[in-house]
Amino acid sequence: MRLSIIGTGYVGLVTGVGLADLGHNVVCIDIDKEKINKLKKGIMPIYEVGLKEIVDRNVKEGRLTFSTSIKEGIKDSEVVFIAVGTPQDEDGSADLQYVMKVAEDIGKDLNGYKVIVTKSTVPVGTSEKVKDTIIKQDAKAEFDVASNPEFLREGAAVKDFFTPDRIVIGVDNEKAKEVMKKVYAGIERTGKPILFTDIKSSEIIKYASNAMLATRISFVNMLSELCEKQGGDITQVSKGMGLDTRIGTRFLHAGIGYGGSCFPKDVKALIKTLKDNGCDNSILHSVDAVNSQQRKKFVDMITSNIDVKGKTIAIWGLAFKPKTDDMREAPSIDIIRSLMAKGAEIKAFDPVAEDNAKKIIEGIEYCSKPMEALEKADALVICTEWDEFRSIEFSDIKSRLSSPLIFDGRNIYDPILARKAGFRYLSIGR
Ligand SMILES: NC(=O)c1ccc[n+]([C@@H]2O[C@H](COP(=O)([O-])OP(=O)(O)OC[C@H]3O[C@@H](n4cnc5c(N)ncnc54)[C@H](O)[C@@H]3O)[C@@H](O)[C@H]2O)c1
Questions:
Q1: Residue 399 Cα, ligand 1 centroid: separation in angstroms?
Q2: Range of 402's domain?
Q3: DSSP E strands: which ranges in 148-192?
């Protein structure tokens, strides 16, 4: 099939290259000329495991091209995916201006039957608005709209494209359903379930899924405080809960809370949608509040154990989670800013997020190795649970720090071993 993806970010690029690898001819379109030029030269604009190899292969075999023109890019396409950003608006709702701008452009340049698919995370009712917007442009051809939310995890995005837990597709007629079946036939053959729903249910499924995962994180973070006050261990509590097959173990790790480009904004957008529809949103208000508090409480934990004024603090991990360079809404940003406001000097290391971090956090020293960040620092603060930090010898950490003090926001070390190694070791809920 001939497909195009408008918006070549984390979602658009991975989806585009994945669909090309399934055998389709794909054009990835973006208004960001620099991004498209980079991609044409084989330079990846984002860090994602396995992405470059698969982009290179599909470009070489002629199935994947890049363009800055919607008109050119969609002209031969049977299906057009909209995968532009839907950032948070001032009132918490999803800002749909990029989606609607793309819908206008599609409407103006529609030259034959196409299925227009919203892949961006959008509030219930948006696909209908996309449809109305396209019609308003006096579109010259027939079209259908569909909703196909994305569930990939940054850091495992390529793998998730090929082996998703499920693919959700919202359609309102058989013709669009048949087209979308063909798009994902290569994944369906591997036995992965494709769930066809009505369009509105599909839109709601995306927010419901992210909000549920965020709820689990905030739930366990809420209990971590009780563990701290009473002397319990949240990792044991999580394990004990998770062994119940009705609950399961995933997304039950206490820490400094969720960040990233999805959970924070999607929880807030669902809060707003529920409010606008006169529905109770109190659970999600609490989820959001617990998450914000978690960062503040971590800073309090640090500053009540060390007067950071004039001290050097080493930070390990800047990205909002491991295996990604994405800094959007990363807890490290708030934590570093708070420590700097209290007079701390910061030396930070992240395996891949440094370039993106530099655009957001200024006035700190970026180090190219974890050990470099520790040299003469007065404490180590762990903000992201990169695997490489887990295997570093305590003796190597201790020999570099001025004082043996670790604040572990991700519970990556065993507290007993850390204390045996001579550290004052403070973590979350243990
Ligand atoms: N990042 C994730 O892990 C993830 C996962 C699931 C869903 N989503 C959702 O997918 C959507 C995209 O997220 P992302 O992280 O890929 O965003 P992103 O910011 O990485 O990419 C969006 C891209 O769209 C481009 N764009 C904006 N307006 C355009 C236009 N008019 N024409 C062409 N291109 C345009 C931007 O230049 C940018 O490259 C969002 O709705 C997000 O909530 C993201």
A1: 44
A2: 198-430
A3: 167-170
Same domain, residue pair 136 and 209: no
Please name the amino acid found at residue 248: G
- Catalytic annotation present for 279: no
Q: Report which ligand 1 atom has the smallest distance to the Cα of 32.
A: 37
Q: What is the position in ligand 1's atom list of the atom closest to the CA of 154?
A: 3
Q: Which residue has the tokens 């887990």?
A: 390
Q: How far apart are CA 253 and CA 77, in angstroms?
A: 43
Could you tell me if 230 and 346 lie in one domain?
yes
- Asked whether the beta carbons of 393 and 374 are under 8 A apart, the reply is no
The answer to whether 12 and 161 are in contact (CB under 8 A) is no
Domain boundary among 139, 169, 197: 197
Domain-terminating residue out of 197, 212, 230: 197
**Residue among 421, 386, 413, 364 at smallest CA distance from 235:** 413
State whether 214 and 358 are in the same domain: yes
Residue to substitute in 29, 32, 68, 261 for testing ligand 1 pocket (most ligand atoms within 8 angstroms of CB): 261
Ligand 1 atom with the shortest distance to the CA of 29: 33
| Catalytic-labelled residue, pool 262, 279, 367, 383 | 262
Residue 116 tokens, joined: 């227009």
CA of 309 to the centre of ligand 1 (A): 40
In terms of domains, do 232 and 169 share one? no
Question: 310 and 361: one domain?
Answer: yes
Per-residue pLDDT tens, the chain, 430 aa: give them.
999 999 999 999 999 999 999 999 999 999 999 999 999 999 999 999 999 999 999 999 999 999 999 999 999 999 999 999 999 999 999 999 999 999 999 999 999 999 999 999 999 999 999 999 999 999 889 999 999 999 999 999 999 999 999 999 999 999 999 999 999 999 999 999 999 999 999 999 999 999 999 999 999 999 999 999 999 999 999 999 999 999 999 999 999 999 999 999 999 999 999 999 999 999 999 999 999 999 999 999 999 999 999 999 999 999 999 999 999 999 999 999 999 999 999 999 999 999 999 999 999 999 999 999 999 999 999 999 999 999 999 999 999 999 999 999 999 999 999 999 999 999 999 9
**End-to-end distance of the chain based on CA atoms, in angstroms?**
54
**Residue 141 belongs to domain with CATH number:** 3.40.50.720
CA of 96 to the centre of ligand 1 (A): 11
Q: Which residues line ligand 1 (CB under 6 A)?
A: 6-12, 29-32, 35, 83-86, 98, 101-102, 120-121, 150, 152, 154, 261-262
Q: Are residues 182 and 64 in the same domain?
A: yes
